[in-house]
Design goal:
The chain has a single domain, classed as Rossmann fold (3-Layer(aba) Sandwich). It is an alpha/beta fold. The chain starts with a strand and ends with a strand. A hairpin with a 6-residue loop joins strand 8 and strand 9. The strands form two sheets. It has a nine-stranded mixed β-sheet. Strands 1-2 form a two-stranded antiparallel ribbon. It has eight helices and eleven strands. The radius of gyration is 18 Å and the shape is globular. The structure holds adenosine-5'-triphosphate and magnesium ion.
């Protein structure tokens, strides 16, 4: 099986070379745990090796994303300017609707999210897709709808041979009964928790599943460093 570098040497070594190419991987975790940054490492590495990448962003503007990446030593701007990296901001429809309700006094229509439609904005020539954060589409649909739409999207992107990272915040993952994990090829969980003994925040990355891959038993501890990004402790 072909692998695609995660952009982090140590993580690659624990994944037999990287993420399985052409498959869908779910990255979940609580807020501030490093999900977006893990995605940025992949995008930077993939762009550097000449791949076409797309970031579908629901929460941040392209400018903010480029600044965040730069502060971690990941210069994505040239790739963005050359079109090797497409960053598209996608608002969840309800955001527009909420703005409309406030500004023009319109009534909510009960509009439902359509996750499958995301496939239409990805150029055919794309190799790597990061969707950050698929969780924003979950509140307006039922669990069954989410599951069938997510399965369909994952299937369609797999058919197109994209290596896709689905980033999902922990509360959306919980709300949807952790069902996204079943359809994808791999699951990575990130956390940022206070150690009750030291009162210090500790970050760790856990490979929960990765089909066709022998995965480590232990979570990998890391720091996020300026100009470097995710920095794993040596074991
Ligand atoms: N330049 C930097 N130097 C050091 N640490 C940084 C830097 N930039 C970001 N961080 C750390 O990374 C954390 C954010 O990581 P990230 O945005 O990947 O989290 P996330 O899991 O995507 O969070 P959310 O669910 O809110 O989107 C910040 O809270 C900060 O602690
Ligand atoms: Mg994020």
């Amino acid at each position: 099986m072909e692998r695609i570098s995660t952009g982090l040497t140590k993580l690659d070594s624990k994944l037999e070379g990287g993420y399985p190419e052409g498959k869908g991987i779910l990255i979940s975790g609580n807020t501030g745990s490093g999900k977006t940054i893990l995605g940025l490492h992949l995008l930077h590495q993939a762009c550097e090796s000449g791949k076409n990448c797309m970031l579908i962003a629901t929460e941040e503007t392209p400018e903010d994303i480029l600044l965040q990446a730069k502060s971690l030593g990941l210069n994505l701007k040239p790739f963005y300017e050359d079109g090797n990296l497409v960053i598209q901001r996608v608002y969840e429809e309800r955001v527009y609707e909420s703005i409309g309700c406030v500004e023009w006094g319109t009534k909510p229509s009960g509009l439902k999210s359509n996750i499958i439609k995301l496939k239409d904005i990805i150029p055919d020539t794309t190799d790597v897709v990061v969707i950050d954060n698929i969780g924003v589409f979950t509140p307006s649909i039922s669990l069954d709808e989410f599951k069938s739409q997510f399965d369909a999207l994952n299937h369609l992107l797999f058919k197109r041979n994209y290596t896709t990272i689905y980033i999902m915040d922990e509360s959306s993952n919980k709300r949807t009964d952790y069902t996204a994990a079943y359809s994808v090829y791999g699951v990575i969980k990130m956390s940022n928790m206070e150690n009750p003994y030291t009162n210090k925040h500790e970050r760790c990355l856990e490979i929960v599943k990765m089909r066709n891959t022998q995965i480590p038993d232990e979570p990998m501890k890391f720091k996020i460093q300026p100009n470097k990004g995710i920095d794993f402790f040596s074991d």
